[in-house]
Design goal:
- The chain is 29% helix and 28% strand.
- It is an alpha+beta fold and 438 residues long.
- A hairpin with a 2-residue loop joins β21 and β22.
- α10 (245-253) runs parallel beside α11.
- The longest helix is centred in the N-terminal third of the chain and has 17 residues, at 57-73.
- 35% of the residues are buried.
Length: 438
């Protein structure tokens, strides 16, 4: 990045010539012969030479990185992003390593500012506290982080094992900040939990496709269930935020013996990406569970199209596009949407999602009641009635008031990681899946 700053920072003619030389003729023409491209160079020169405060090389690098993020933001898709060298390092850590944190995967918020929860690891602090997928992180330890990068937010959340961190989030449909006190724990990406249900029904949940170990962990869990006598299987993909396309294909191959699994449509053509290769390790009855946070639609879409099993739950997230992760010369990475993936029947599900065969609301977690407002008299009691229940709070000295209902206790924790806690009374989707298999 320092070298790039020097190249662009000379006189107008010299800058254009050097950019031209670095990019090569076809690409340089796009920038140097386009008035907006020239204006981009001029803007950087003005900041470097004339801005009131002289910027350090590090600050100038941030300016350039902001320009990259701005270009991606102009595309209008939340799935395009730029990751700094620090972000790229964190991504690699997620794919293979362990750290001390709260057990949540973060992604960029609107306009690539701030961070929101993409995935949660069951049994770890964020999940146990009641944080939900989709929550926007607004505060960490009382500090406003809504305009920081994902990497900066993450670095404030991770820390020494056993130390406390307070995370404030805003939930869709409310401007109230919900605060969660958590103790940092060791985070090792164990993507699979499993268990047995009476009636020889095996249960396995897959939480992410990010880790390189996903398919190995899944196969070990399925083989373990078979050894325990499972003859029917529930495959839970609720809250699975997606991840690597290759891992998703490997997972689908465990259930579908032959035929196309995923097609890939680029701007020029549509081709088959992967297919069943007679490597299925589960051939018995199968039910797949999804909810509105499931971005694991490659598997559920393939199971549905091939009629391999029933899909039960809520309409899924609807992420039917894929990104190419391109390493950048500065050590960062460019995440750019370059293709749409299609189901075996060549269905596009982007922004539509997979419609389940049997539709049910996910009943595992209650949505907490929260409200805020202004205009009350100082000290006045404000009440709100919902569903026959009344909630009260007092206005402050300025007549403002906020309320957040106490969170219900989290589900009981398993004795060890990877062991599922199955509560059919609390989980309507799981209960319906068991009825379907029985």
């Amino acid at each position: 990045m320092k070298r790039a700053a020097w190249i662009i920072g000379g006189g107008a003619v010299l800058a254009a010539a050097l950019v031209y030389a670095q990019l090569g003729r076809p690409n340089a023409d796009v920038l140097t012969r386009n008035p907006n491209g020239q204006a981009l160079v001029q803007t950087y020169q003005a900041i470097q030479n004339d801005y009131l405060e002289k910027l350090t090389p590090e600050q100038l690098n941030k300016v350039l990185e902001g320009g990259i993020s701005g270009m991606l933001g102009a595309l209008g898709s939340e799935f395009n992003s730029y990751g700094s060298p620090e972000d790229a390092k964190n991504d690699e850590e997620m794919r293979r390593g362990e750290f001390f944190g709260i057990g949540a995967t973060l992604g960029p918020g609107a306009d690539n500012k701030g961070a929101q929860i993409l995935q949660l690891i069951r049994g770890l602090p964020a999940f146990n506290a009641g944080i939900q997928v989709g929550d926007f992180i607004s505060e960490v330890n009382g500090e406003d982080v809504s305009n920081l990068s994902v990497s900066q937010v993450r670095n404030k959340i991770v820390g020494q094992r056993g130390t406390k961190v307070t995370v404030g989030v805003k939930r869709q449909g409310s401007n109230v900040t919900l605060k969660f006190d958590m103790i940092r724990e060791r985070v090792e990406i164990v993507s699979v939990t499993s268990g047995m249900i009476p009636g020889n029904i095996g249960y396995v949940s897959l939480e992410t496709f990010i880790s390189d170990k996903v398919n190995d962990q899944l196969q070990a869990a399925i083989n373990g269930l078979k050894a325990r006598g499972a003859t029917k299987l529930i495959f839970d993909l609720r809250d699975n935020g997606g991840g690597q396309l290759q891992q998703a294909c490997l997972v689908a191959q465990n259930f579908i013996r032959s035929g196309p699994l995923v097609f890939q449509r680029t701007r020029d053509r549509t081709t088959e990406y992967c297919r069943g290769e007679n490597s299925a390790i589960w051939n018995g009855p199968l039910v797949v569970l999804i909810n509105r946070n499931s971005a694991s639609e490659i598997v559920s879409g393939a199971v549905q199209d091939t009629k391999r099993g029933k899909v039960i739950g809520e309409t899924s997230f609807g992420k039917g596009v894929g990104q190419y992760v391109r390493p950048m010369v500065n050590g960062g990475e460019l995440v750019l949407v370059t293709f749409e993936w299609l189901t075996p029947n060549k269905r596009g599900i982007n922004e539509k999602g997979v419609e389940p065969d049997i539709k049910l609301r996910d009943s595992r977690f209650e949505s907490p009641v929260a409200f805020e407002g202004a205009g009350a008299k100082p000290g006045e009691t404000v009440t709100l009635s919902i569903g026959g229940k009344t909630y009260s709070t007092k206005a402050d000295a300025e007549g403002k008031y906020t309320f957040a209902a106490p969170r219900s206790a989290p589900p009981a924790l398993p004795a060890e990681r990877g062991q599922a806690m199955l509560d059919l009374d609390r989980d309507a989707i799981l209960k319906r899946a068991v009825e379907e298999l029985r």
